[in-house]
C-alpha cells in the first residue's frame, strides 16, 4: 500500500492464499471506520454511533493488527483517551472504550513519549470516580509510559500529604503511585522523575511500583541504599522468566525508542550461569513437590533457554531414573512434564549443549512403557511427551546420510545412525496404542435371549448396507412381514438399527467430503518447507519456521471442485428439500433421512467470499425457507416429534453461525494453540521463532477468525426470521426442545448487534396478562429467554432504555398472567434467578451524554487526515448544529424514559391483585433506579419512605437502603475551604461542637422529595413505628451490626460532631453496677468509636488510660480481655517514625514502666503461680494485686501482637523474664488461664520483628532464664530462641556479635545435664533426615556411638 508505513501488521495475513485482496479490503474498512467514527463524534452520537464504530475498530485490530499510519495510531489513542475520560459516561461504555484503548497502547515500542503524551489528571479523576465508587476496575495500568516527565512532581505533590501511616488513606496514595507514576524515560529525565520519590516512599511496601521501575530502568537506579544487603527470597516460577525477558531485551530485541540497558550493566554468560546454579537446586526439589511440577517445569524451561548445559543434564538424569522405576509413577509424570518444557532447548542445535540431541531416541524409547491403560494420568502425559518430541523432530531415517554428506560433525554422524531406530519406535508405539485400545473395549451387557450371533449379524449388516438397493430391501422386508417380539423381532430391529447407523455414517462421510472440497485449508504441516529427500532432516530438529518464507501449500477450491459440489447438492440435497416441501403441503410422507442429508451438507451453506457462483441457487436461503415451513408444520401437527425439532434447531444453528468452522471449535483450537505455543516457544530470541507446523496452524486460525468476524456478524432479514423461529421453539411444549433452542437463541443475540430489539416485544407479549391463550410452557420459555443462562449478559439487563422500559414492568405484571402460578416451584426459582441476575449485571444506564471539545478537536483531525482518506465528507455547520440539537433531545428523551420506567413500576405496585413475590421484585427493581445525576421522582421517594414501616421485612430492608441513597441524593453541596491542619487548634479540632448550618431551608424552599422526607421524619407516630421495626430481631440470636441501617443514620467521623457521644461513653464504663457483661460491652462500644477516630482524639486516649490504669486488677476474664483490646487501640499510633515529632497519643514505654513498678513483688520469685481465681475477690495484698495486674497485661500483650503498627518496644521486652517464670510451671490437668496466656505471649513475641538494638535485651533475658533451676524454663528458652532466629534471621546475620552469643547459648543448653534439652530431639531429627542413605552415614560413627544412638532412639521391646 502506497503512502505510509503501517505501524505493525499481522504477518500471518500475508501467508493466506487470498492475501493480495487484503490490502484493498483493509484500506476500505479503515477509511470507513475513520469516517464514521469521527463523524459520530462530530454529530454528538455517542450511542449507537461511536459505540458501534469503536467495536468495528476493535475488530480491525483483530483482523489486520495496527495496519495504519503512526499519525492515525496517535489520533485513535487521543480520541479513545478523550472518550474514556468523558464526564458522566456510563460504566459499560467506559469499559468498552478502555478495552479498545488498552489494545491500541499495548505495543509500547511503536510510539515513543515524543510521539504521544497524555495528561494524567483526567485519568486520575476518572480513577477516583470509578474505583472509589465501587464501580468495576477498568485496568488502567497501561497509561503511565505516556505521561509527561513533569507529571511525576505533580503526582507526588498531590499524594505525598496522604502518606500518613496512621490513616487508611495511605493505602489510596500507595495504589495511586503504583498505577500512575511514569517509569519509562531517558536518563536525562531521571532527575525530574523517580529520583524524587525514592527517598520518601521506598520504605513503604510498594513492591509493584518498584518492580516496574527496576524493570524499565535497568542499570540506571542504584538500589543499594534502599534495600537490605541480606539475601532476597527468590520466586522460583517468575524469576527465570524475568531474566529471560531481560536477556531478550539486551541481546535480541529490535531497537526502539525505549532506553537501552547500559553495556556495563548487561548480563554476561557468566552471570547467567551463576544465576542458573543458584536456582537449579530449588527447581529440582520443586519438581516433586506436593503442589505439582508445573511451576518447576516453567522455571526449568526458562533456565534451559538461558544455560541448557547446566539446566538440562540434571533433569535428564532424574528422567532416566524415573523411567526405570515402576513403583513411583508420580516421579515419571513430574519429570516428563519438565522435559516437555525443555524439549525445544534439548533438540535445537546449540553450541552450549550440542550433545543434547543424542538423548532424543533414548527418551522416546524409554517413554513407551508410559502408554499404560492402568494409569490414565501417566498415559496422557506420555502421549503429550511423545507428541512434543515428534513435532520437533522429523521421524526420518538418515542412516545413509554419512555416505552422501562429507561435512557432518561427529555428533551429526551419531544422530544419523541413531535415526534408524525411528522405525522401531513407531512400530512399538503403535503396538502400545493397539494394546491400549484392546484393553479399553467396553463389553456390552445383553439379555440372555441375545447371543453373540446377533452382535456378529449387526456388524455384517453395517458392512453390507452400503447401497440404496440394500437399504430398500431391508425396508421392504421389515415393513411387509409380521415378527414375534422375542427373537425374530429383535433381530429385525437390530438390522434396522444397523441400517440407520450406516446411513448416518454415510451422511457423516458426505459432510467431510463436502468440507474437504469447499473449504480453504493447509495441505501439509511439515517441519520444513522442503522435502526430506533433498535435505538432511537431522539439521531440521527444533528448527524455527521462517515467517517470511513459510511456503504454506493451500487447498483452494477450484472450478472443478465447485462444479462437483453443486452436482452433489443437486443430486442429494435438492430432492430432499422437495420431499420436505411435499410433506408440508400434504402430498407425500417424509422420512428422517432427509434431515440427515441436510445436516451433512452444512459446510456448503457458507458464503464463499473468495469463490463466485454466478447465478447458481442460494441453498442457504432455500433451506431457510424450507425449514420455516417444516417447523410450523411440525409444531401444528406433530409437536411431539422432538427428534425432528432437534435436527431443525441444529440446522438453524448452522445456518446462522457456520462459516467454515464453528465458534466453539475455533475457541477450543485457539486455546490449544496457545498452550502448545507456550510450551514450545523460544522467549529468549522472540521474533516468532516458532516451529513451522505451529506457524501454519496460526495462519489457519487467522483465516478462520476472518471468516467468523467478517462474515459472521452482519444482521440480515433472514437472521431476523430465524430468530423468530428460534423463539417459537424456545417457548414450545417440550423442555428439551426449549432448552436447545434457547442456547442457540442466546448465542445469536450475542453475535448480532441490536437483534434483541426485534425479540423483546414478542417475549413481552408472551408474559402479558392479556395473553390469555398462552400455555405455562410458553410462559416459562419466555422467562428463560430473558434469563439467558449460558450468556454473559441477559435480555433482562440490556443497557437500553427502550428494552428495560418494556422488560422490567412486564416481569412484574406477569404476576397477573393467568398462566403464572407460584405453586410451580420452578417458576419461583426462575423469577429469583432473573432478579438476581439483574442485580449482578445491572449498570446504571446513561441519561446525559456530552461530547467534550477535546473529542471534537481530535475527531476533526481524523476526518481531515489522509492515508487512507475517510470515505465521508466533513459534516457541514448545519449538520453539526443538528447533531448538537439531537444530542439535547436524546438527553431529554432519556430522562423521560427513565421517569416513565419508575412510574410504570410504581403503577404495578399500586395493583392490589399483584402477588407478594412480584411486589418484592418491583421494589427491588425500583431501588436500582437511584442515580447520582438525576433525582428520583417524588412518587418513588414517597413509596420508599412509606415502605420503611411496611409489613414485609424484605421490603423494609430494600427501603432502608433506598432511603439512605435518597438522603445522599438530596444532600445539597456545602462549600469546602482548603486549610492546613496546623491552622486549627488541637482543642477546637477535638472538642468544638458542630454549629447549626446557617443555610437551613424553609419548607417553601424544599424540593418535592425533601418535603416528603421532612414530613414523615417529623411525624412522631411514623418515627415510633420505624424505631419499633428497627428494634425487632431479624434472626433470633444471630443479629449483628447492620451496615444498611447504619447508612440511614450515619454521621461523619469529625470528633467535633461526635464529642457528646464520646463524653457519654466515657462516663464510668467500668462502674460494675450491671456486672461484668455490662462493663465489657460498654468498653466495646467505646473502643469502636475510638478506633474510627484513629489519630484524631489523643486527649480522650490519655483520659481513658488514666481511668483504666487503677482498674487493671480486674477479676473477671471477659473484662480483662476487653481492657487488653482497648489498651491496644490506645497505643495504636505510638509509632516512632524518622524525621518526625513524637505522637501526642499515650506512649507504651511510659505505661510499661509504671506496670513494671507494680509487678515488682513477682520479679524475685523463681516461679509464678496463679493462686487468684474469680471467687477470691477480697485479697488485697501486693502479690495478689500484682498477679491480677499481670493477667490483664498478658491479655494486652496478646491483643497487641497482631494489631499494632510496630514491634515490641524495649520496655515490653523487659516483661520476658516474668513470662518465662509463668509458662513452664507444672500444675494439675485443670485449665490455667495465666499459664496458657503466658505461653501464647511467648509464642507471639518470639515471632515479632526485632530491631538490632532490641537483640541484646532479648538475649540477656534468655541467658538469665537459661541459668534457671527449672529445666522446663530452660526448655522454653530454646523454643523461644528457635522461633526468634527463624523470624529475624537476616537482622541477626547483620549483627555478628549477637550470632556468637546465640551459638554460645545453644551450646550451653546442648550440654545441659537434663537429656531432654534438645539432645534427644536433635539426634532423632538427624536420624530421620538421613534415613535414605543411613548405611553410608553410619560408617562415620564408632560402635559405642551407634550403641548410644540405638539406646536413645529405639524404644525397648515390651517382651525383652
From TrEMBL:
UniProt keywords, alphabetically: Cytoplasm, DNA damage, DNA repair, Nucleus, Proteasome, Repeat
Domain Proteasome activator complex subunit 4 C-terminal: 1314-1360
SUPFAM superfamilies documented for this protein: ARM repeat
Domain (Proteasome activator Blm10 middle HEAT repeats region) ranges: 229-502
Major subcellular location class: cytoplasm
One GO CC term on file: spermatoproteasome complex
One annotated GO molecular function: peptidase activator activity
Domain Proteasome activator complex subunit 4-like HEAT repeat-like: 996-1050
InterPro entries in alphabetical order: ARM-type_fold, Blm10_mid, HEAT_PSME4, PSME4, PSME4_C
Subcellular location: Cytoplasm; Nucleus
One Pfam family linked to the record: HEAT_PSME4
Family assignment from sequence similarity: Belongs to the BLM10 family.
Protein name, entry field: Proteasome activator complex subunit 4B
Naturally occurring in which organism (per UniProt): Collichthys lucidus
Amino acid at each position: 500500500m502506497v503512502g505510509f508505513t503501517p505501524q505493525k501488521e499481522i504477518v500471518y495475513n500475508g501467508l493466506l492464499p487470498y492475501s493480495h485482496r487484503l490490502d484493498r479490503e483493509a484500506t476500505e474498512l479503515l477509511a470507513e471506520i475513520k469516517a464514521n467514527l469521527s463523524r459520530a463524534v462530530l454529530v454528538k452520537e455517542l450511542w449507537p454511533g461511536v459505540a458501534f464504530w469503536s467495536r468495528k475498530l476493535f475488530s480491525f485490530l483483530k483482523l489486520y493488527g495496527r495496519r495504519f499510519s503512526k499519525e492515525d495510531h496517535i489520533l485513535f489513542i487521543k480520541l479513545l483517551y478523550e472518550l474514556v475520560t468523558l464526564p458522566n459516561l456510563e460504566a459499560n461504555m467506559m469499559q468498552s472504550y478502555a478495552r479498545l484503548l488498552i489494545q491500541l497502547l499495548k505495543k509500547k515500542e511503536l510510539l515513543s513519549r515524543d510521539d504521544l503524551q497524555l495528561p494524567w489528571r483526567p485519568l486520575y479523576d476518572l480513577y477516583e470516580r470509578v474505583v472509589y465508587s465501587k464501580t468495576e476496575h477498568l485496568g488502567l495500568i497501561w497509561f503511565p509510559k505516556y505521561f509527561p516527565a513533569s507529571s511525576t512532581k505533580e503526582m507526588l505533590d498531590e499524594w505525598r500529604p496522604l502518606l500518613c501511616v496512621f490513616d487508611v488513606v495511605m493505602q489510596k496514595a500507595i495504589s495511586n503511585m503504583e498505577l500512575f507514576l511514569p517509569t519509562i524515560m531517558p536518563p536525562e529525565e531521571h532527575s525530574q522523575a523517580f529520583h524524587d520519590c525514592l527517598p520518601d516512599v521506598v520504605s513503604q511496601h510498594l513492591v509493584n511500583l518498584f518492580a516496574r521501575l527496576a524493570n524499565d530502568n535497568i542499570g540506571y537506579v542504584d538500589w543499594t541504599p534502599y534495600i537490605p544487603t541480606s539475601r532476597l527470597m527468590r520466586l522460583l516460577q517468575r524469576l527465570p522468566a524475568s531474566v529471560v525477558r531481560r536477556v531478550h531485551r539486551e541481546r535480541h530485541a529490535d531497537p526502539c525508542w525505549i532506553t537501552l540497558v547500559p553495556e556495563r550493566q548487561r548480563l554476561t554468560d557468566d552471570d547467567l550461569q551463576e544465576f542458573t546454579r543458584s536456582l537449579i537446586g530449588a527447581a529440582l526439589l520443586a519438581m516433586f513437590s506436593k503442589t505439582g511440577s508445573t511451576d518447576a517445569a516453567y522455571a526449568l524451561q526458562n533456565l534451559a533457554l538461558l544455560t541448557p548445559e547446566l539446566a538440562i543434564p540434571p533433569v535428564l538424569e532424574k528422567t532416566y531414573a524415573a523411567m526405570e522405576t515402576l513403583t513411583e509413577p508420580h516421579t515419571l509424570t513430574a519429570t516428563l512434564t519438565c522435559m516437555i518444557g525443555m524439549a525445544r532447548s534439548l533438540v535445537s542445535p546449540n553450541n552450549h549443549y550440542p550433545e543434547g540431541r543424542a538423548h532424543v531416541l533414548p527418551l522416546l524409547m524409554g517413554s513407551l512403557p508410559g502408554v499404560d491403560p492402568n494409569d490414565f494420568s501417566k498415559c496422557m502425559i506420555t502421549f503429550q511427551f511423545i507428541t512434543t518430541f515428534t513435532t520437533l523432530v522429523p521421524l526420518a531415517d538418515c542412516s545413509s546420510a554419512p555416505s552422501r554428506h562429507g561435512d557432518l560433525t561427529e555428533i551429526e554422524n551419531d544422530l544419523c545412525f541413531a535415526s534408524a531406530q525411528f522405525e522401531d519406535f513407531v512400530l512399538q508405539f503403535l503396538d502400545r496404542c493397539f494394546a491400549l485400545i484392546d484393553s479399553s473395549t467396553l463389553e456390552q451387557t445383553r439379555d440372555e435371549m441375545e447371543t453373540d450371533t446377533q452382535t456378529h449379524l449387526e456388524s455384517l449388516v453395517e458392512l453390507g448396507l452400503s447401497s440404496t438397493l440394500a437399504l430398500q430391501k431391508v425396508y421392504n422386508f421389515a415393513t411387509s412381514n409380521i415378527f414375534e417380539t422375542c427373537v425374530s423381532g429383535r433381530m429385525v430391529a437390530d438390522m434396522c438399527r444397523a441400517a440407520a447407523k450406516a446411513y448416518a455414517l454415510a451422511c457423516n462421510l458426505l459432510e467431510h467430503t463436502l468440507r474437504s472440497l469447499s473449504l480453504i485449508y493447509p495441505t501439509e504441516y511439515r517441519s520444513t518447507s522442503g522435502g526430506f529427500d533433498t535435505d538432511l532432516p537431522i539439521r531440521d530438529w527444533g528448527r524455527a519456521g521462517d515467517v517470511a518464507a513459510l511456503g504454506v501449500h493451500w487447498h483452494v477450491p477450484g472450478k472443478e471442485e465447485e462444479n462437483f459440489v453443486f452436482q452433489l447438492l443437486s443430486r442429494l440435497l435438492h430432492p430432499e428439500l422437495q420431499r420436505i416441501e411435499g410433506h408440508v403441503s400434504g402430498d407425500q410422507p417424509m422420512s428422517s433421512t432427509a434431515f440427515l442429508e441436510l445436516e451433512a451438507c452444512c459446510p456448503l451453506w457458507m458464503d464463499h467470499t473468495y469463490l463466485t457462483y454466478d447465478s447458481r441457487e442460494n441453498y442457504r436461503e432455500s433451506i431457510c425457507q424450507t425449514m420455516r415451513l417444516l417447523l410450523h408444520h411440525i409444531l401444528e401437527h406433530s409437536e411431539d416429534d422432538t427428534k425432528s425439532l432437534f435436527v431443525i434447531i441444529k440446522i438453524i444453528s448452522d445456518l446462522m453461525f457456520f462459516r467454515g468452522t464453528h465458534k466453539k471449535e475455533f475457541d477450543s483450537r485457539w486455546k490449544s494453540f496457545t498452550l502448545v505455543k507456550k510450551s514450545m516457544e523460544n522467549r529468549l530470541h522472540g521474533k516468532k521463532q516458532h516451529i513451522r507446523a505451529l506457524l501454519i496452524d496460526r495462519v489457519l486460525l487467522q483465516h478462520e477468525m476472518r471468516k467468523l468476524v467478517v462474515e459472521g456478524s452482519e444482521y440480515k432479514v433472514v437472521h431476523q426470521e430465524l430468530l423468530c423461529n428460534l423463539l417459537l421453539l424456545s417457548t414450545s411444549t417440550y423442555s428439551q426442545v426449549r432448552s436447545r433452542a434457547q442456547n442457540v437463541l442466546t448465542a445469536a443475540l450475542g453475535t448480532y448487534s441490536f437483534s434483541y430489539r426485534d425479540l423483546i416485544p414478542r417475549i413481552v407479549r408472551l408474559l402479558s396478562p392479556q395473553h390469555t391463550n398462552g400455555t405455562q410452557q410458553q410462559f416459562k420459555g419466555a422467562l428463560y429467554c430473558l434469563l439467558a443462562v449460558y450468556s454473559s449478559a441477559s435480555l433482562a439487563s440490556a443497557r437500553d432504555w427502550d428494552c428495560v422500559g418494556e422488560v422490567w414492568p412486564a416481569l412484574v405484571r406477569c404476576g397477573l398472567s393467568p398462566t403464572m402460578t407460584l405453586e410451580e416451584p420452578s417458576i419461583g426459582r426462575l423469577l429469583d434467578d432473573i432478579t438476581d441476575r439483574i442485580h449482578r449485571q445491572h449498570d446504571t444506564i446513561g441519561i446525559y451524554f456530552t461530547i467534550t471539545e477535546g473529542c471534537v478537536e481530535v475527531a476533526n483531525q481524523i476526518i481531515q487526515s489522509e492515508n487512507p482518506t475517510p470515505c465521508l465528507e466533513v459534516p457541514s455547520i448545519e449538520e453539526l448544529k443538528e447533531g448538537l440539537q439531537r444530542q439535547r433531545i436524546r438527553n431529554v428523551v432519556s430522562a423521560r424514559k427513565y421517569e416513565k420506567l419508575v412510574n410504570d413500576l410504581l403503577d404495578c405496585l399500586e395493583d392490589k391483585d399483584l402477588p407478594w413475590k412480584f411486589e418484592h421484585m418491583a421494589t427491588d427493581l425500583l431501588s436500582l433506579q437511584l442515580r447520582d445525576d438525576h433525582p428520583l421522582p417524588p412518587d418513588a421517594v414517597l413509596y420508599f419512605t412509606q415502605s420503611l414501616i411496611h409489613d414485609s421485612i424484605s421490603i423494609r430492608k430494600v427501603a432502608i437502603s433506598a432511603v439512605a441513597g435518597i438522603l445522599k441524593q438530596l444532600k445539597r453541596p456545602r462549600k469546602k475551604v482548603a486549610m492546613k491542619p496546623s491552622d486549627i487548634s488541637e482543642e477546637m479540632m477535638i472538642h468544638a461542637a458542630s454549629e447549626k448550618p446557617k443555610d437551613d431551608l424553609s419548607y417553601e424552599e424544599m424540593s418535592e422529595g425533601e418535603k416528603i422526607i421532612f414530613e414523615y421524619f417529623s411525624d412522631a407516630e411514623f418515627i415510633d413505628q420505624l424505631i419499633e421495626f428497627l428494634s425487632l430481631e431479624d434472626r433470633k440470636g444471630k443479629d449483628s451490626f447492620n451496615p444498611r441501617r447504619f447508612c440511614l443514620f450515619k454521621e461523619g467521623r469529625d470528633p467535633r460532631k461526635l464529642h457528646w457521644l464520646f463524653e457519654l461513653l466515657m462516663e464510668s464504663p467500668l462502674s460494675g453496677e450491671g456486672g461484668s457483661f455490662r462493663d465489657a460491652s460498654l468498653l466495646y462500644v467505646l473502643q469502636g468509636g475510638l478506633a474510627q477516630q484513629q489519630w484524631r482524639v489523643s486527649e480522650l486516649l490519655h483520659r481513658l488510660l488514666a481511668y483504666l490504669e487503677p482498674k487493671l486488677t480486674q477479676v473477671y476474664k471477659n473484662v480483662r480481655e476487653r481492657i487488653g483490646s482497648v489498651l491496644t487501640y490506645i497505643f495504636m499510633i505510638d509509632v516512632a517514625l524518622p524525621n518526625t515529632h513524637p505522637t501526642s497519643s499515650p506512649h507504651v514505654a511510659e505505661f510499661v514502666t509504671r506496670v513494671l513498678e507494680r509487678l515488682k513483688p513477682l520479679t524475685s520469685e523463681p516461679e509464678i503461680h496463679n493462686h487468684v481465681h474469680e471467687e477470691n475477690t477480697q485479697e488485697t495484698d501486693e502479690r495478689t494485686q500484682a498477679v491480677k495486674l499481670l493477667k490483664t497485661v498478658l491479655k494486652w500483650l496478646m491483643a497487641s501482637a497482631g494489631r499494632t503498627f510496630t514491634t515490641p518496644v524495649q520496655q515490653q521486652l523487659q516483661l520476658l523474664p516474668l513470662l518465662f517464670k509463668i509458662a513452664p510451671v507444672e500444675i494439675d490437668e485443670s485449665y490455667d488461664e495465666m499459664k496458657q496466656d503466658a505461653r501464647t505471649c511467648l509464642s507471639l513475641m518470639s515471632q515479632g520483628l526485632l530491631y538490632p538494638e532490641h537483640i541484646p535485651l532479648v538475649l540477656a533475658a534468655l541467658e538469665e532464664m537459661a541459668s534457671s533451676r527449672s529445666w522446663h524454663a530452660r526448655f522454653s528458652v530454646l523454643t523461644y530462641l528457635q522461633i526468634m532466629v527463624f523470624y529475624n534471621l537476616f537482622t541477626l546475620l547483620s549483627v555478628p556479635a549477637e550470632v556468637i552469643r546465640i551459638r554460645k547459648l545453644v551450646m550451653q543448653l546442648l550440654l545441659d545435664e537434663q537429656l531432654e534439652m534438645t539432645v534427644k530431639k536433635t539426634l532423632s531429627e538427624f536420624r530421620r533426615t538421613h534415613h535414605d542413605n543411613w548405611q553410608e552415614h553410619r560408617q562415620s560413627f564408632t560402635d559405642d556411638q551407634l550403641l548410644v544412638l540405638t539406646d536413645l532412639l529405639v524404644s525397648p521391646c515390651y517382651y525383652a
